[in-house]
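Archive entry. Fields below.
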Amino acid sequence: MKLTVIGLGLIGGSMAIDLRKAGFAQEITGVDAVAENAEEALRLGIVDRIGDLENSVKGADFVIISIPVDKIVGTLTQVLDLISDQTTVIDVGSTKKAIALAVDSHPRRRNYVAVHPMSGTENSGPGAALQGLFEGKINIICDQEKSGPLYLAFAEKVFQVMGMKLAYMTADEQDHSTAFISHLPHVAAFALANAVLDKEEREIIFDLASGGFTSTVRLAKSSPEMWGPIFQQNKQYVVESLEVYIKHLKAFKKSIENDPEEMMELMRNANRIRGILSGEGDSLVKNEKTIVKLYTK
Amino acid sequence: MKLTVIGLGLIGGSMAIDLRKAGFAQEITGVDAVAENAEEALRLGIVDRIGDLENSVKGADFVIISIPVDKIVGTLTQVLDLISDQTTVIDVGSTKKAIALAVDSHPRRRNYVAVHPMSGTENSGPGAALQGLFEGKINIICDQEKSGPLYLAFAEKVFQVMGMKLAYMTADEQDHSTAFISHLPHVAAFALANAVLDKEEREIIFDLASGGFTSTVRLAKSSPEMWGPIFQQNKQYVVESLEVYIKHLKAFKKSIENDPEEMMELMRNANRIRGILSGEGDSLVKNEKTIVKLYTK
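PREDICTED_STRUCTURE:
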């Protein structure tokens, strides 16, 4: 299987590593607008060769577009213009509505499968790519009926090879859900970092590595170049999630000031997240029994 | 050395484990208002015996009070009433001003060392106690001039045995700093959990274990019985930190809506936390070269 990865960062690089290791991708071509990234990916053995977009896409069986979401819109159209009917294309952006809309009437729309693999770290670039990053994680497939059955099946097989669980929803549902469970936590962490940095004058930062700060603020290390376009493309739902969050913060503050019993109740309610995180809660994941590691050597 | 631990939870239990393993505490007595906790600590070998407060405190070389901060005030006074001049007493509460004030004019004030060991997990109870929980972590010693030199030196030695770094500040400085780097992240996580649980009607919780949610919300699993009293005792600074945080969240929201360039700038500013967390930032820690593991067998 000939794989082309456009954008050799954390997500694209990690997918290439897994698909090669599984024996599923035999030839991997990399495309990156930044020459140093392309060279690093080649040096790390993530890709076999680097090339320009046009030549790298033609003849590929599978194309992964893993670049910031504002760049995906134009690049996806360009890729669909170039491919044959033997090629399946995915993008891995964290937003899906704006991207899906841009290619909605493209003659090769059926070759495209809109997905959001829910995994990552706060690091970026080819050096951040990790084997097994997607193992056991969810991949959201959006508007599946707009993908041709062949291309949908092929993409599903790719994700099963990576050990992912699959969830299906509309692009609108995915953008709304993801605003709350991914985009909002990122904004919360960015703002928390800024709030603490704001108080620097009192030498408050004596040890930020203790005290519960580290895990809560981890996402504040994330790349503005990646997250800025996500917040912009999903503006409506990210703003809604922030309004809900600020409402809850204000309610908590008010309860600390005036109503200790209500404060205890708010914490007990928040504690319910423990059961949900440990898997006792609801899940929209449709096929828990995904066949994994089909191609493991 | 005879050690008495009042409150056999995560912090008290972990300290007992470390001090026994280092060979520094030979006899460990446990006191807990909840009989099941006391029995579990005994069964786990964390303490050698369990007893009532009065008999367990008399004759002890070192007393650790590790109970919720609202309970510390009364218990600390009670303990100081009972001890001889050979006993050193600490409490490990996350707030220090209210507690220190309550015993400010006690005749045995000099036997008391007010500290805040900055380590923990979101779990509680004797079963949550961990060996090495404090290794390399900061212990804040407050208002050190109010402790007698003998008792201060003894307490410092205990913390060095546990491998801790020591920081010194006033109780007021500690409460202000801790509001931002520990109490605020906890409130942020409680409110984030509530915000996401709020949207449950749209089945938003399809996979909260992905997408950056888990680490940001980890602290929302924390015990209301422990944290409620902390937020109440440190009300002034926790409310201040929340106001600063909400201000930064609103600024971020506004920038998403109207000013993408400002939004990028806010993220770049937040990214500075990476350098600070990795130890390139300022530190108030006074003695990085603490002698550790004095008593390791």
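CURATOR_NOTE: Chain A has two domains: 2-170, 174-277.
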